[in-house]
Amino acid sequence: MKLAIDLGGTNLRIGQVDDGKIISLKSVPCPAHGSESEVIDLMKSLVKDMMTPSVDGIGIGVPSVVDADKGIVYDVINIPSWKEVHLKDILESAFGVRACVDNDVNCFVLGEKYFGAGKDFNDIVGITLGTGVGAGIIIDGKLYRGANTGAGEVGSLPYLQSDYEHYCSSSFISSCSDKTGKELTDLASQGDKNALEIWNKLGFHLGRLLQALLFTYDPQAVIIGGGIAKAAPYFTKSMIESMNEFIYSRTIKNIQVRFSTLANSNLLGASKL
């Protein structure tokens, strides 16, 4: 059995995972603006509570740049005190089992590959749409991290007047409306024309991001998750229409674009690290 941890700026979640199933799950608020040791101590306390003799490994997903080989976490934007945290060494020293650390979106795509919408594919891009835009890359069945664990930072690619993250995340919603994504989804479900138009525009930009992914990675499948993906019924049509303007028709014929339906993808992926 593995312990899987999903560290975020809002919540810290931990689960016992056995054979691809979450046996128990706990979520607590993350003291994101506390000291480095405060966050680490909370994580260690949760691990201690979940630890049993059958646990033989710990996997952790974090929203930041990670040296996956050494298990060092750098510059977590949502947790300012985490500048350089040797998380692998800390947990292995405390609990005596192997610990692996990786970017949270890499964990997402691993979860989808082994347990979700990516099971039938060996070349996958998984993207998460939320506060930002991130991607995890699987090539020939294996996670591809790049030389500095930076592969998949597609949200930072230049696009129009900014980058894709600005046009495909909650930042775009904020620039178009004073409503939250959930509020816009509710309004769209009631036929509100302004809300529907905002989602339509976001879908267009997302289709352009998918084109960029087709050019750079040529995957068999793109799997989309994250909070913004909950509004998929209101932007999928414009997204596909925009993507389908891709210059290679054979690629468009073969590509599979799927939305995640897997609960706790990040945790399940962390358990596979």
Question: What is the fold's blueprint, element by element?
Answer:
Blueprint: E1 2-7, E2 11-18, E3 21-29, H1 36-50, E4 57-62, E5 65-67, E6 72-74, E7 84-85, H2 87-95, E8 98-103, H3 104-115, E9 124-129, E10 133-139, E11 142-144, E12 158-159, E13 162-163, H4 164-168, H5 170-176, H6 181-189, H7 193-217, E14 221-225, H8 236-243, H9 249-254, E15 256-259, H10 265-271
Parallel strand pairs: 1-4, 4-8, 9-14, 14-15
Antiparallel strand pairs: 1-2, 2-3, 5-6, 6-7, 9-10, 10-11, 12-13
List keywords for this structure.
273 residues; alpha/beta; 15 strands; 26% strand
Largest sheet: 5 strands, mixed
Order of helices and strands: EEEHEEEEHEHEEEEEHHHHEHHEH
- Count every helix, treating DSSP H or I runs of 4 or more residues as helices: 10
Shape: globular
Rg, please?
Answer: 19 Å
Runs with pLDDT <50, length 5+?
A: none
Mean pLDDT: 96
Strand content: 25-35%
Q: How many strand elements?
A: 15
Structural class by helix and strand composition: alpha/beta
Alpha-carbon distance between the two ends: 13 Å
Give the % helix: 25-40%
Strand order of the biggest β-sheet: 3-2-1-4-8
Plain-language structure description:
There is one protein chain. The protein has 273 residues and is α/β, with parallel strands linked by helices. The chain is 38% helix and 26% strand. It is built from ten helices and 15 strands. A five-stranded mixed sheet has the order 3-2-1-4-8, sandwiched between helices. A five-stranded mixed sheet has the order 11-10-9-14-15, with helices on both faces. A three-stranded antiparallel sheet has the order 5-6-7. A hairpin with a 3-residue loop joins β1 (2-7) and β2. The protein is globular. The model has no long low-confidence stretch (mean pLDDT 96).
